[in-house]
Structures are given as structure tokens and as C-alpha cells.
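INFO  loader      accepted 1 record
INFO  loader      residues=461
INFO  predictor   begin
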Amino acid sequence: MDVTTNGNISFWYADIGGVPQKRPALPGDREADVCIIGAGYTGLWTAYYLKKADPSLDIVVVEREFAGFGGSGRNGGWLSGGFGWSREKYLKTATRGAVVDMQRAMAGTVDEVIRVAEAEGIDADILRVDNITVATNRPQLERAREEYQFYLDWEMPADRMEMLSAEEAARRIRIAGVEGAFVIRDMARVQPAKLVRGLANVVESLGVRIFEGTAVNGFTKGRVETERGTVRAPIIIRATEGFTAGLPGHERTWLPLNSAQIVTEPLPEAVWREIGWEGHELLGDAAHAYCYAQRTREGRITMGGRGVPYRFGSRTDIDGRTQQATIDALHAILTRLLPQTKSLKIVHAWCGVLGVPRDWCTTAGFDRETGIGWAGGYVGLGVSSSNLAGRTLTDLVLRRETELTGLPWVNRTVRPWEPEPFRWLGVHSMYQLYRMADAREFGGLQHTSKLAAIADGITGH
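INFO  predictor   done
INFO  writer      dumping C-alpha cells
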């Protein structure tokens, strides 16, 4: 499938006039109360809540590229408030009630992000919508039903969820071969680049200094060494998510997992009438190698998925450029689910990385002895989770004991990933088995393929 633009960070920047000019770099050595490494959602939310809590704080943010260069400006725009990590793993160090509290806190991020956006005048095309996960074969429908029951068992309010029959699902979105769907309410669609750029402007207006084009070479207690000078600060926050492996000493902390997207030209009204999708729902499927999509403000469709999941040695992409094979695979998913789109042009393709801890469960923490904090490893749920991270880190830095500082993700320790080539082999084997499992299920298998369980076991997913 031919594509007009490949890379150039993401379509979301093309949508707002192109990649922004960088703010000035760090002009040399300086001191601050807080130094935040990374100007994505996590770093900016942390700076925002810290500055709101204590306006006297001198906060510096250092960013290698520009605010929103990474996953914050490239994601699928799902403000979900979801809890996509293993509750059982958190239960090893917490009570069931504490895990439920964390689930509720994550869900509450949707309202909080919308509240701040409205209060601060951030226009990010935010629209409250449902999330619909469609099933297009019998095993997928089985998993959707299991997920629905699982959430009920974990005290998700019943009025937030619904199982749809094939007919009910088709009335929402006319997915080819749909057999049913699982719906979760109270989520939102956003334009990611608008959100992160708006948040950066707000943080800057509060007096936070954002230095772009400033690569960090390393950091220790009280010092952040950059190519432009040293920032001395008693509090340092690592907010580097999918780019964490690029920091010295953190090569195996979090694995940078690739995810890619394509976006169509605006759909003619006649095609929208064929498709439906009048509720602008966030759209995913129940395949093992799942996809994620949204209907954008101006009537395009974005479709995302894993593509080539991991680059050897934790390497990252160059300005969002992705492989042709990934573009073709995403186009195949789009046209399989929505054959009404077959004649549409694909105008932009891009990719980015998301952070994955060894146990696939997000963490946030702060070491009072060193003054170093961190948050991330969101495994694809960063649009909402980063907001909770910013509020949690604020409470930890200010030494406030709150409901947030007692949540199970706080100060969890996770073992590092294996050295190469083992992590490359593990991740690629996992996704190859997922693809094989999906192929068997599309081929007529009437239950979930056992290959998926083997895939999960390989990497502890």
C-alpha cells in the first residue's frame, strides 16, 4: 500500500501545521529545585501538579528533542483510564482492595484530564466516547465475554459496561463478520499532539523552564549531566518512558516496544453512512495481536497495531518512520474490518515506542535518599496513566501521604530484561505466536488457540 508520508514524527503534527520549532537548549550549568528528564506527558503532568502545589518551586525540564516528540505525540489518542496490567501481579505485594483502588484511580484520570484541559484552555479535540472491542470469530467472542465477566469480578461498575450481540454491534459500527462486542463507557478520544503541546505551553506559562534539544548523558544524586551543561537539583524525575533504554545504566530497565499507525484521507459522507460509527467510539478488536483505531475530528480513520514489535538492542525509530510491511499489515487489518475503506488513500504512516517493564506492569516511585523519582512502563496506556503518575509523583516529592502514594504501583521493584539476543528472541517469538494463534482462529478454530498462552509464558506477559 502506497503512503503519502512515512514518519515525520506523526500525522498528529501534520494535523496542526507540522513539527514545531524547538525551544532554546539549556544555556549551560544551572541549579533548580526539581529537574525533570523528558517533556512528554509524564514529565509535563509532573511539572504541572508540582508547580500548582508549590508555585515557588524552580522546575527545569530537559528534553532531547522537543516536547511531545515521543509517544505523547504519536499515540492512538485513547484517553481510556484503562487498567491493562496484571492485577494478580500487583496482588503479590498488595491487597485486593488496594488493587481495586488503583483501578478506580486510573479510571478517574479521564475526568481529571478533561477538567484540566477545560480549566487551562487546552483544545485537544477531546470527545467523551465509548470503547468498543469487536469480535469477528468465535474465540474472540469467547475472550470478550470472559473479559466482561473479569471486570465484573473486579468491581467494575456494571453500568459502565455492556456486551453487544452481533446485530447491536453492527448498529454501532458495521464491522465485517462481527459476532459481538464488549463496550466500556466513560472514555475519551483526544488529538495527542494537541494535548501534549497545549500542556507544555501551560506548564511554561506557570514558570517552568523547558529546555529542548538538550540530550541527557546521565544522572546521579543531585546532578543531571547533559550535552549542554549540568543541572544541579535535589529532586530528579526520570520521565523517559519508551526511550529509557537510551540512558546509561537503564539499557535493560524497560523494553521499547514498537507500535505503528496509518491514517486515511477524510472519508466521504457516503462512506461514513455505510460504516456508521456515529458515536465516534474508540475501536479495537479481540485478536491476540490486537489493533486500535479512532475516528478523528475531521473524519479520518487511524488504525494502529504492533507491526515489527521490537528492534534489536532496544534501538528506536528515526523520526517515526516505519516499515512498508507494517503499513501493508495495518492496511490489511483496516480493510478486513471495514471493507468500505478499500478505495481510500493512506496519507500518513508512523511509529513510536512504548515502555514495557519485565513484568508488563507499570510503576511509579521516588527514592527519598537519592531524590530520584520515576514513572512509566505504561505498556500502551500512557495517555491516561501519565496523569495519575504526575499527581502521584507530586505527592511523593512533597512527602505527602495520600491515597495515591499508597497505591500498589508505587515503588515496585521489577527485575531487568534479559541481555540480547534473548529479549529480541523472546519478544519476536511472542508476537509470532500471537499471529499464528490469530491465523488459526480465523481459520475456523472454535476456541482460543493454546499458542497464545505459550506466547504469554515466554515473556511473562
